[in-house]
Amino acid sequence: MPVTCVVGLQWGDEAKGKIVDILTAKHDIVVRYQGGSNAGHTVVTGGQSYKLSLVPSGIFRPDVKCVVAGGVVLNPAALLEEIDGLTARQVAVGDNLIVSDRAHIIFPWHFEEDRLLDKRLSGGEAIGTTLRGIGPCYRDKVGRVFAVRLGDMYRADFRQRIEHITQAKNDILPGLCGGAERVRLDAAEIHRQYSDYAERLSPHVADTTVYLLDAVESEKNILFEGAQGALLDIDHGTFPFVTSSNSSGVGVSSGSGVPGRYVSKVIGILKAYTTRVGGGPFPTEQDNETGQHIRDRGNEYGTVTKRPRRCGWFDAVAARYTARLSGVDVICVMLLDVLGELPELKVCTAYELDGRRTTRFPSHVDDLRRVVPVYETLPGWQQEITDIRQMDDLPENAKKYIARISQLVGRPIEVASVGPDREQTIFA
Ligand code: IMP
Q1: Residue 240 near ligand 1, beta carbon < 6 Å
Q2: Given a cut of 60, is residue 1 above it in pLDDT?
C-alpha cells in the first residue's frame, strides 16, 4: 500500500498544496509532520481558493483523515481560526482532523522572541523569519524546561507551568534587546486564553504516533505533506538561513513517528524557476526585470506574510542535492506557464567557486554566497500553455526545458503544472 511523501526541493512555496490535493483522492490519511503556521498552502478546488496553514490539504475530502503530527509546532489560535474559516465555507472539520498531543505549543513569548532575535544574527543579516514564533518554540522544545506540549494543557499543573514559564520569560526577554523594551506577559491572561483554546481543540487531540503506526501496519494509504522546502532544512539546508525543522524528506520519521522504511514513494516538488523569501544566499537570484517579470506572472508574494518573493533561474545544482537528500523518486515541475513569455531561459548547471567548477552544493553559507552560477541557455516557447493537458501537446521548447531539468536533477518527471487549478495538471 502506498505511503507517499510530498516534499519541496527548493526554499518553500513550490505549490506542494496542489499536488497533495490531487493525491488525497488516493489516500486515507494526510499528515503534516513539521513546521507550523509559517507554512502557507493554497488549494484551488471547485473554482474556490483556500489558504491553509496548519490544516493538512486533505481536509476538502470528507473521507480523508487529516493528521497534525507531533513534529509540528502549534499556534492554537491560528489552528482554531483556520477551522472556523473552513467551517464558515461549509468545509466539514470534525473527527476528520486529528492533532497530536505531542505537538509543542506556541505562546505569546515565542512571538516576542522571534521579533527581538531575528535582527540579532551575527553579521547583521536577518534570517527574515515569518515572525510566527516557530524558531523560539522549537528552541524551547529542544531546551525542554520551558516547553509545553498540547497534552500538557489538559493536566492539573497547567496553570502552575504557565505561571512558572511566564515569570522566567518576563525576566529573560528584556535581555534579548539589551533592556530596550519592557516585557510584561500576564500569566493569568495567557492561562485563561490557552485553557479556552485547549477546550475547543479537545475533540481533535490524540496520540497520533500510535494512530499512524497502527495505520501503516494495517496498510492504510498515507500521504505525508512536507512544509517549506529542503533548502530550508535545519540540518541540511542553507544554515543559518533556514527554518527550525527538518523540512526535507528526512523529517518524516522524526516528525510523525513513522519509520522511513514504510515510505514507498517520495515526490519532489520543484518550481520551473526558483524563489526564496527572507534572507540568505540565492545564487541564481535575478534582482532585475526578469525577476520582476517572474514575480508578477507567478504572483510571487508570500501566502503567510505577503512579502514579495525573491525570484531567479532554476538551480539544478541545488535541486539535484535536495532530490538526493530527500530520497526523491519522481519530480513535479510546477508553474511552468509562468515562464511562457520569456524569449530565453537559463538553467544553472554548475557553480564556480574560487575559479573551480563544481556541481556539489556547498555546506557552508559563506561558500554558497561566493559561488558564481554557470548557466545553460535554452530557448523559451513564448506561448500560453495554461489550457494544455497532454505532455505531447506542450510546445517543443517547453518539452525540452522540462526534459533538461529532469536530466540535471536525475529524476523522472511525473507532473508538469500549467496553472493553479486541479485541472491544469499534465501527467507524464
Ligand atoms: P521561520 O520558519 O519563520 O523561522 O523563518 C525562517 C526562514 O524560513 C525565513 O527565511 C522564512 O522566510 C522561511 N520560511 C518559513 N516558512 C516558509 C514557507 O512556508 N515558505 C517559504 N519560506 C518559508
Answers
A1: no
A2: no
